[in-house]
Amino acid sequence: MKAILAWHEIGARLVFERKMLGIDQVDLAKAVDISPSLLSKYEKGTQVISFENLVKICLLLYVDITEFIPKEGKSRFK
Fold first, then answer.
1. How far apart are CA 44 and CA 8, in angstroms?
2. What does the alpha-carbon distance between residue 17 and residue 77 come to, in Å, rounded to a whole number?
3. What is the dihedral of CA 58, 62, 64, 70, to 10 degrees?
4. Is there a contact between 48 and 9 (Cβ–Cβ < 8 Å)?
């Protein structure tokens, strides 16, 4: 079965990883050079995240970018 790319799942993973490091939305948004409201939309899955911003966020959160792609269509971050 192919992995299904679901923006809300990527957003849930962003929240999970950000909170694990104790980083708030404002600080992460500033580091990525985006507004906190845009980061909030990414985290809610209501805005498609650009590849460039996803790479920046992954580097800041010390996460391999492949971890943001759901495997087998199953959510691991509800």
1. 6
2. 10
3. -70
4. no
The span from the CA of 17 to the CA of 9, in Å, is: 12
The upper half-sphere exposure of residue 3, i.e. CA atoms within 13 Å in the direction of its Cβ, equals 13
Burial class (CB in 10 A: 0-12, 13-18, 19+), 53: middle
What is the separation of C-alpha 29 from the centre of its chain, rounded to a whole number of angstroms?
A: 12
**Per-position pLDDT tens, the chain of length 78:** 344 467 888 899 999 999 999 999 999 999 999 999 999 999 999 999 999 999 999 999 999 998 876 666 555 555
Task: Give the pLDDT score at 7.
Answer: 83
Residue in the structure block whose two tokens are 């269509």: 73
Phi, psi of 3 (to 5 degrees): -70, 140
